[in-house]
């Protein structure tokens, strides 16, 4: 199974010449969600469909590092040629390690590509457990750096916890990356594209839910409050709250896609990518910025 944004980006780019002559469709207007809205939109930036269409993360170490983004154009040829042809929403640890989540069509494993603070890359492969979806939508690293939360696609009542590859001393590129524990959610979530730690026991997540039947809104921003910080010593529970609908604005009408999410603890800024429908995937997809009100 493939997340639809990658297919849509390929289709949009392949048909650019033809689509450029099409008339611009009517503006899509969305009513804000009635749920508690504690995150206020403060601005936006264009999201490039090739290099900023899947995920993003702020990087604290080394100091002065630029934000990192992922998209179909950021996958190295040497990685895609081995079947790892989809990259999700990445994260960077507070001690400088950067981790990108990859999936392939094989249906037997996932891969996490890790860059050390010195610049060297390594790969950690996780063999799927029975019943585990092949999708590798995102990763987010706990504030202590030792644990990584990752997500599947579809309607789920859990998130997966792994030792952080390259950081946790139990991990090795030459060994299978095992699942350490599970976050059991008290409310189902659908099509979570990204999560990021705000504190050791709180996550913010972007959901691409197209139906709106779980929380009464489509494309919600979710907050997950944990009963304890994730670790390898046992499962924890997560209380899920839908905070608001993500912005759905474009010069084209059709289906939007919520993508990756990032919380920058240095500034308190939350950023979420929303990919526009149709031809406008190329022109007005946005990374929206929020601050807590």
Automatic annotation (TrEMBL):
- Keyword Signal assigned to the entry: answer is yes
Going by the entry's taxonomy, the superkingdom of the source organism is recorded as Bacteria
Leader sequence residues:
1-35
| Keywords tagged on the record | Signal
Name of protein: Secreted protein
Species: Streptomyces mirabilis
């Amino acid at each position: 199974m493939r997340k639809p944004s990658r297919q849509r980006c390929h289709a949009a780019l392949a048909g650019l010449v033809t689509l450029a002559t099409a008339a611009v469709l009517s503006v899509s207007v969305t009513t804000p969600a009635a749920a508690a809205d504690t995150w206020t939109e403060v601005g936006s930036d264009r999201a490039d469909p090739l290099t900023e269409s899947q995920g993003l993360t702020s990087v604290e170490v080394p100091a002065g590092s630029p934000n990192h983004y992922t998209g179909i154009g950021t996958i190295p040829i040497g990685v895609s040629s081995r079947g790892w042809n989809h990259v999700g929403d990445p994260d960077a640890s507070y001690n400088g390690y950067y981790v990108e989540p990859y999936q392939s069509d094989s249906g037997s494993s996932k891969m996490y590509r890790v860059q050390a603070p010195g610049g060297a890359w390594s790969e950690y492969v996780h063999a799927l457990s029975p019943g585990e979806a092949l999708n590798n939508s995102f990763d987010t690293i706990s504030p202590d750096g030792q644990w990584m939360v990752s997500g599947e696609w579809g309607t789920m009542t859990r998130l997966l916890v792994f030792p952080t590859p390259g950081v946790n001393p139990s991990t090795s590129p030459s060994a299978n990356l095992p699942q350490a524990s599970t976050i059991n959610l008290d409310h189902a979530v659908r099509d979570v594209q990204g999560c990021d730690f705000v504190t050791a026991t709180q996550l913010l997540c972007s959901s691409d839910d197209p139906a709106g039947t779980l929380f009464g809104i489509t494309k919600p921003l979710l907050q997950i409050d944990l009963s304890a910080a994730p670790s390898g010593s046992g499962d924890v529970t997560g209380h899920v709250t839908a905070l608001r609908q993500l912005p759905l604005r474009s010069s084209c009408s059709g289906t939007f896609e919520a993508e990756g999410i990032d919380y920058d603890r240095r500034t308190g800024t939350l950023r979420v990518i929303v990919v526009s429908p149709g031809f406008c995937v190329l022109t007005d997809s946005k990374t929206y910025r929020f601050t807590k009100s």
